[in-house]
Amino acid sequence: MAKVIMVQGTMSNAGKSLLAAGLCRIFAQDGYKVAPFKSQNMALNSFITEEGLEMGRAQVMQAEAAGIKPSVYMNPILLKPTNDVGSQVIVNGEVLGTMSARDYFRYKKKLVPDILKAFHKLSEEYDIIVIEGAGSPAEINLKSEDIVNMGMAKMAHAPVLLVGDIDRGGVFAQLVGTVELLEKEERARIKGLIINKFRGDKSILDPGIEMLEERVGIPVVGVTPYLHIEVEDEDSLTERFCGNQEVAAIDLAVIRLPRISNFTDFNPFESMEGVSLRYVTSVSELKNPDMILLPGTKNTMEDLKWLRQSGLENAICKATAEGKIIFGICGGYQMLGKTLKDPHGVEAGGEMKGIGLLDTDTVFTEKKTRTRVTGRFKKVGGILQNLSDMEMEGYEIHMGSTTLGEQTAAFTEITSFAGEEKGAAKADGVCHGNVYGTYVHGIFEKEEVVKAIVTAIGEAKGLDMTQIAGVDFAKFKEIQYNILADALRKHMDISRIYEIMEEGTDDED
């Protein structure tokens, strides 16, 4: 059976996902077969595996760091919030149903067999499993039914590294308070503390570390710096949303919908020199971008209402009339059409008018489309006509079915290679003038596609694009994972972490 180590945090966004990814890369570099695991993830950024199953992208990112293909066993339960009090519950990659928070709290212990089956499957195939917790293990109102923090640690006989976030302040209170709120047997599982996101002179911090270790009796095994690296982060607390708003020579604006999902689609643009990618929530933030991107959403109809009320719908229509590029993906694509109908109450129910920039109509269905696709752009019009005949690939995750008007032609041709639709060929997407829409997530991950889009925008503005360089996004991410691993090796006691894994916990069989 595999050795295990678990990364828990004092709060959400303490850095668990990133540190788990870094450990995955380190162990892989050291010659071990390593896999990530998170029993329950709550996220709107999801991914479709080669088997056509849905899982959280955080574990996909960690699998990339480990150098392996993502598997739904790495994330057996995925919760996708539909509103403030309910989520779509996905178990083993397939939709179980939609539950309120209260109903799911009562139900989730029934999913323990699914969690253990997935965990044991990985244990049989890998040398090391890096488990990630969720939020904080010290939520005293939730501990009795826990399946993702200390409850998971107990099931996996996992020693725990507890991570605190010094950047937000109060890191000593975070760590001491978390430890103090745990039961005796839970505290015994914590074998090391990590102070994350540190900036400054560590010698000033050292006296506090000594007092911390004396107070809780647990060694600090790392003081990791605030890392400026480009890897995928947890969607609900990403710093991308409140980051740089400066405008570069080529400016792209992503509409930050209230229930935005899979905004990872746009990450490849962030690594392009001379390109700004901004997330905006108001007309004043929108400014005058060259391209407006409408992302996916877990609730298209409710987010379209928000878009309307915020004034951004009018701003998008105005930008269209000015010849700017509008590009919608999944829910964003659905919004751009004429009508949205929800006869089964999958989202808000009823019918509403779309933005009307594309001659399409969408009906929400009870069955979710989950598939990976490969294909090519057909004849593409407008500014992005240089995409014509280029290869593309990605994946679909949606509940809607979109039909095209009689005079409207699809602009991509795709073939499914995963899930129930494997081998099926179909047309996808629409372009009308400079307005484009598609169901395919990941459509921008090919270097040639991103380069073609940036080049077309630059040339339309009269910029010299002869020296434009594309970015191989897969290679770029590999470099980032190596930078992460190098930083953790420098600032964490990796030898001690290996010893912790070898020693395990006292409750092992």
Features:
509 residues, alpha/beta, Rossmann fold, eleven-stranded mixed beta sheet, six-stranded parallel beta sheet, 16 helices, 25 strands, 31% helix
Question: Layout of helices and strands, plus pairs?
Answer:
Elements (H helix, E strand, L loop, with lengths): L2 E7 L6 H14 L4 E4 L2 E3 L3 E3 L5 E3 H10 L10 E7 L2 E6 L2 E7 H7 L4 H14 L2 E5 L17 H7 L3 E6 L5 H10 L3 H4 L2 E9 L3 H15 L3 E6 L24 E6 L4 E2 L5 H4 L4 E6 L2 H4 L4 E4 L1 E2 L2 H11 L1 H10 L3 E5 L1 H5 L3 E4 L7 E4 L6 E18 L13 E14 L5 E7 L8 E8 L2 E4 L8 H14 L12 H19 L2 H10 L6
Parallel strand pairs: 1-9, 1-10, 2-9, 3-6, 10-11, 11-12, 13-15, 13-16, 16-18, 18-25, 19-21
Antiparallel strand pairs: 4-5, 6-7, 7-8, 14-17, 19-20, 21-22, 21-23, 23-24, 24-25
Helix pairs in contact: 1-2, 1-15, 6-8
Description:
With 509 residues, the protein is an alpha/beta fold. The protein has two domains: 3-231 and 478-503, 3-Layer(aba) Sandwich (Rossmann fold); 250-462, Rossmann fold (3-Layer(aba) Sandwich), CATH 3.40.50. Helices cover 31% and strands 29% of the residues. The chain is built from 16 helices and 25 strands. Strands 13, 15, 16, 18, 19, 20, 21, 22, 23, 24 and 25 form an eleven-stranded mixed beta sheet that branches. It has a six-stranded parallel beta sheet with strand order 2-9-1-10-11-12, sandwiched between helices. The protein has a four-stranded mixed beta sheet with strand order 3-6-7-8. A hairpin with a 7-residue loop joins strand 19 and strand 20. The longest helix has 19 residues, at 473-491. 51% of the residues are buried. The model has no long low-confidence stretch (mean pLDDT 93).
